From TrEMBL:
GO terms for molecular function: oxidoreductase activity. The lineage of its organism: Bacteria, Bacillati, Actinomycetota, Actinomycetes, Propionibacteriales. This is SDR family mycofactocin-dependent oxidoreductase. Keywords: Oxidoreductase. GO terms for biological process: monocarboxylic acid metabolic process. Residues 7-197 form the Ketoreductase domain. It comes from Nocardioides soli. Coiled coil: none annotated. The keyword NADP does not apply. Belongs to the short-chain dehydrogenases/reductases (SDR) family. The keyword 4Fe-4S does not apply. InterPro entries: KR_dom (IPR057326), NAD(P)-bd_dom_sf (IPR036291), Sc_DH/Rdtase_CS (IPR020904), SDR (IPR050259), SDR_fam (IPR002347).
Length: 277
């Protein structure tokens, strides 16, 4: 498949998880791909990508024959994000698809939430998304074309215990996407969000999250939490696989999605049916 042949795609949070899968799929579809990741662990958060993970993704891209580059950078830093976008433009002349995927999670009740838990999650998931997208907007405005896709979440419009910082940050992403979509629509640039439920990544599969879902057990396993996760949506799916989310990304980034903008695409086993709208 070469639907994105000659296109340039940039992915934040590309070291592993959804970001890695998005980058590989875009490369397999013919795109030239740049990835960036902060490559350090925030103490308050679920496991994050490392520089070794980033280099592994870069090697996987090269194995697929893709023109690519990888860099360490913080999505909350305007200078890092300008450097990321400028590198792609200097190498390849344009940026056609920008995936603001980087995000973190630090779960816990509000009464026990530390400043770091709030600042790290809102900083990465909302400020980081906005800062990274702000770096690419001037390029796409000049081109009068482009696709911007940000990662939100099903929990954004639903809320949930132990999730206030995460839900607030992902709600903010939807508001940012809708506002920017209106600004850029006359220029032929689309801006959308993906809103998946839990995805089978380290953000979901870790001891702390398992204990939150099964506080009745001292050391719960994946099998112990499966039914609890599945109870959150009417299709009774515990979590998505990476390719489920990437399929949504592919649609929004492709020619098929050329008239879709300001949307939040639910990929959630029907969880979104519980929303008021």
């Amino acid at each position: 498949m070469s639907e994105f042949s000659g296109k340039v795609a940039l992915v934040t949070g590309g070291a592993k998880g959804q970001g890695r899968n998005h980058a590989l799929a875009l490369a397999e579809a013919g795109a030239r791909v740049g990835i960036v990741d902060v490559c350090r662990q925030f103490d308050s958060c679920a496991p994050m990508g490392t520089e070794e993970d980033l280099r592994t993704t870069e090697a996987m891209l090269k194995e697929r024959g893709a023109e690519c580059f990888a860099m360490v950078g913080d999505t909350r830093s305007s200078s890092d994000m300008r450097r990321f976008v400028d590198t792609a433009r200097e190498r390849w002349g344009s940026v056609d698809v920008f995936v603001a995927n980087a995000g973190v999670a630090a779960f816990g009740p509000v009464a026990e939430m530390t400043d770091d838990m709030w600042d790290d999650v809102v900083g990465a998931n909302l400020t980081g998304v906005a800062t990274s997208i702000r770096a690419v907007v001037p390029v796409m405005k000049e081109q009068r074309s482009g696709r911007i896709i940000a990662t939100s979440s099903s929990v954004a419009r639903e809320g949930g215990p132990n999730n206030a910082n995460y839900a607030a940050s992902k709600w903010g992403v939807i508001g940012f996407v809708k506002s920017l979509a209106i600004e850029l629509a006359p220029l032929g640039v689309t801006v959308n969000a993906l809103a998946p439920m839990s995805v089978s990544t380290d953000m979901c599969h870790n001891d702390k999250t398992y204990r939150l879902f099964r506080p009745d057990l001292a050391d719960p396993t994946e099998d112990d939490v499966r039914d609890t996760f599945a109870s959150l949506n009417p299709m009774r799916v515990p979590w998505l696989e990476l390719e489920d989310v990437t399929a949504g990304l592919h649609y929004l980034a492709s020619e098929s999605g050329r008239y879709v903008t300001g949307a939040s695409l639910d990929i959630a086993g029907g969880w979104n049916a519980y929303h008021s709208a």
